Amino acid sequence: MKTRRDFIKISTVGVGAAAISYKALGSKGFGLFESKLEGPVSDEDLTPYPTYCEVCFWKCAAWAYVDKKGRIRKVLGNKNDPHCNGRLCPRGTGGVGMTYDEDRLKTPLIRETRNDGTQYFREASWDEALNKVADKMKEVKEKHGPEAFGLFNHGTPGGQFHHLLRAYGSESNAEPAFANCRGPRMSAYFSTFGAYVGSPESTDIRDTKCLVLIGSHIGENMHNSQVQEMSEAIDNGATIITVDPRFSTAAAHSSFWLPIKPATDIALIMAWIHVLIYEELFDKDFVERYTFGFDQLKEHVKNMTPEWAYGITDIEPEQIRRTAKEMAGAAPAVVIHPGRHLVWYGDDTQRARAMAILSALLGAWGKRGSLYFAEGIKIPEYPQPHYPETKWGWRDWNGDKYPLATMGITTELLKASIPRLNYEHQVKAWLIAGTNLPLAMPDKPLFKEAAAAVEFIAVMDTMPMEVTGYADVVFPEATYLERYDVIRSAANREPNIALRMPAIEPKYDSKPGWWIAKQLGERLGLHDYFNYDDYAEVIDWQLKKLGTSLEEMKKIGVKKFPRKSGPLYMGEGEDFEFNTNTGKIELYSVDFADHGFDPIPKYTKHPEPPANFYRLIYGRAPMHTFSRTINNPNLSDLMSENSVWVNPKVADLWGLKKGQEVWLKNQDGAITTFPVKIRVTERIRWDSVYMVHGFGHANKKLSRAFGRGAADTEMITNVMVDPIMGGTGMRGNFITFLKEDPALNRKEAKA
Ligand SMILES: Nc1nc2c(c(=O)[nH]1)N[C@H]1C(S)=C(S)[C@@H](COP(=O)(O)OP(=O)(O)OC[C@H]3O[C@@H](n4cnc5c(=O)[nH]c(N)nc54)[C@H](O)[C@@H]3O)O[C@H]1N2
Ligand SMILES: Nc1nc2c(c(=O)[nH]1)N[C@H]1C(S)=C(S)[C@@H](COP(=O)(O)OP(=O)(O)OC[C@H]3O[C@@H](n4cnc5c(=O)[nH]c(N)nc54)[C@H](O)[C@@H]3O)O[C@H]1N2
Ligand code: SF4
Ligand SMILES: [Mo]
């Protein structure tokens, strides 16, 4: 039986024909810049507009150059911006493809059901679509209270809807950036240092003598200034130590590559800590002055020798000792990179704690070449009433189950939406803004059950992504190059802000997120929270408070301010109070002990792949961001599908050839919708396979992305939940190969 909300592959009468003829032009019609279509243009004929990139969360500031006909010809980095230093990554340069993608959402859409029960989307006016969502928000408020309206948000578009939700009276929101990404390090670094590492992370890579990458694959993970600083550090002779079961791009540039057995990193880090302590290589003065719990730590790691770790990690004891000595020799100028996507095995907060403790023993905190003290600009709050009090929010869906979580947990929001699970507080409807949940969330069956259970879903996106197929109403947002948005403010070495303004008018019938949120707000009687006609007024008001103006920012894009919080680094022997329970860096975490968690990290063994199965690991490719860029005409030109990396030993055993198409099947019997090509390479351990995340799109309306490669997410049905902060550990899944089309087999079996 079909559920009330069947997945609809967006197709609307009217735009379909146009889309096909446009597609006939072929993706090659779109080069890196549109100028390929229209011939060269001289810089004098171009007008630059300031923006910051939305292709990933590094938010590099840039200039969009527009020609006399009103077309964006190129996007270049802003030289004064510390996120990019004037250079964008390939995704940022090709980001303009998001604006000129002919598959974009073009008008609001409303779900309809025909007499025979089948469902489809019909084009609607903005008024109708907005009224429908606002009416539903009113209804939910009356029937269940505003708290029952949930929000999945990500990136700047999500921020506009978050404001709307708070004004309406709900705090039931969650974003993948926490539970599916960097949540473990937030909880871990906060409990250790009483501070977060921020985004961009405050890693002083450019001045480091030793950079330790534990699974961080910088170079494929293209976080811009980090990649630039890493290459500077290499030129300056820094030692790079990369721990990765795969020979990553970073590993290729490293002095030491430790091809660790997956899921065993905590053992390696604890053995490093053992060597530092028992060979007296740690920073004694720093530890004595600033840390709490050294004696307990020393006792705890007594038997965690390199020999012990060797049996677990496959890393030779000699390598463990040597790399520990390298770090000690470079200390305190060592960056133990805190990682970003940390949700691997469910003990991820503990792994991040181990990394934080390792940094502390090296005195590598607040010192040149380690982690610096970042400073940001607080954007003045535009006048508005306080947000209404809420009766419950993301913390209370089912008791305070994850007390050390600092943001809403996506999987918990799904569970709170399923009546069968009997959560204390039930969520009845969703807004979704800027996240493609079907590809970003592990455990697809859970997502589908929750999506079918809620009464209503409204999605704001720029593309007909999979998530839009679950919506009752779809709002087409203007792309980042077509809109004003919040002022970018992220802590850095120098405090700074960046402006995003429209370079061109929104194409089609798309609208900026701020406008959509305001229109809903007005319909809900929340005018006082949206007291402006144009978001430019808000920005100008805020900028003036900061001693600049919209007029000035339009000319410069980025503005830097003098630091007020003091120097980048700690002074020698300076008194320093950390924002923790003990006022010290907690090698032994009082918070963790209070909540019944191990106060010092322990290694726990995780399940191994069954016979003929291999651990699925995944990561990034330099030219794509998750699922959002796969259809981008510029970027799909650079990489149009993913492959599955297989060790030659495994390829031999299975008789797999380079380029051969296979389907993957996981331990729970899930099979990939699409086949994926084999890449035979020594760069991956024999017990694992590797895939780039984001491919395997199932919506036909994504003309370049549909059916290209396979989705790692489909293979991630086992979620290893982090008991400390609710992270969705995704690397406890194992796959095997199907050499023949499983659909064919199914048909034959029936015949
Ligand atoms: N299997 C697997 N799952 C993962 C990961 C993985 O590696 N593998 N990585 C995890 C991590 S680290 C993260 S951070 C998350 C990322 O999760 P998401 O942020 O959900 O990732 P995307 O797939 O890029 O989806 C972004 C969505 O926003 C839309 N979008 C882009 N720009 C705009 C805009 O300007 N306005 C609006 N309204 N929408 C826009 C895109 O079209 C797309 O639908 O995924 C997590 N999930
Ligand atoms: N080009 C590009 N860059 C991006 C993004 C993007 O989509 N595209 N997304 C951005 C975002 S939001 C995030 S969160 C970051 C994520 O980037 P990172 O935090 O750097 O990535 P992870 O996904 O944690 O790690 C991937 C690496 O971990 C290795 N690995 C797998 N299992 C293990 C293990 O058990 N132990 C160890 N030591 N290593 C293991 C994999 O082989 C792979 O090289 O990337 C950011 N940068
Ligand atoms: S790192 Fe690349 S994709 Fe990310 S914001 Fe910067 S230019 Fe854009
Ligand atoms: Mo992420």
TrEMBL record:
<dbReference type="InterPro" id="IPR009010">
    <property type="entry name" value="Asp_de-COase-like_dom_sf"/>
</dbReference>
<dbReference type="InterPro" id="IPR006657">
    <property type="entry name" value="MoPterin_dinucl-bd_dom"/>
</dbReference>
<keyword id="KW-0408">Iron</keyword>
<keyword id="KW-0500">Molybdenum</keyword>
<dbReference type="Pfam" id="PF01568">
    <property type="entry name" value="Molydop_binding"/>
</dbReference>
<dbReference type="GO" id="GO:0016491">
    <property type="term" value="F:oxidoreductase activity"/>
</dbReference>
<dbReference type="GO" id="GO:0046872">
    <property type="term" value="F:metal ion binding"/>
</dbReference>
<comment type="similarity">
    <text>Belongs to the prokaryotic molybdopterin-containing oxidoreductase family.</text>
</comment>
<dbReference type="Pfam" id="PF00384">
    <property type="entry name" value="Molybdopterin"/>
</dbReference>
<keyword id="KW-0004">4Fe-4S</keyword>
<keyword id="KW-0560">Oxidoreductase</keyword>
<feature type="domain" description="4Fe-4S Mo/W bis-MGD-type">
    <location>
        <begin position="46"/>
        <end position="103"/>
    </location>
</feature>
<protein>
    <submittedName>
        <fullName>Molybdopterin-dependent oxidoreductase</fullName>
    </submittedName>
</protein>
<dbReference type="InterPro" id="IPR050612">
    <property type="entry name" value="Prok_Mopterin_Oxidored"/>
</dbReference>
<dbReference type="InterPro" id="IPR006963">
    <property type="entry name" value="Mopterin_OxRdtase_4Fe-4S_dom"/>
</dbReference>
<keyword id="KW-0732">Signal</keyword>
<dbReference type="InterPro" id="IPR006656">
    <property type="entry name" value="Mopterin_OxRdtase"/>
</dbReference>
<dbReference type="Pfam" id="PF04879">
    <property type="entry name" value="Molybdop_Fe4S4"/>
</dbReference>
<keyword id="KW-0411">Iron-sulfur</keyword>
<keyword id="KW-0479">Metal-binding</keyword>
<dbReference type="GO" id="GO:0051539">
    <property type="term" value="F:4 iron, 4 sulfur cluster binding"/>
</dbReference>
<dbReference type="GO" id="GO:0043546">
    <property type="term" value="F:molybdopterin cofactor binding"/>
</dbReference>
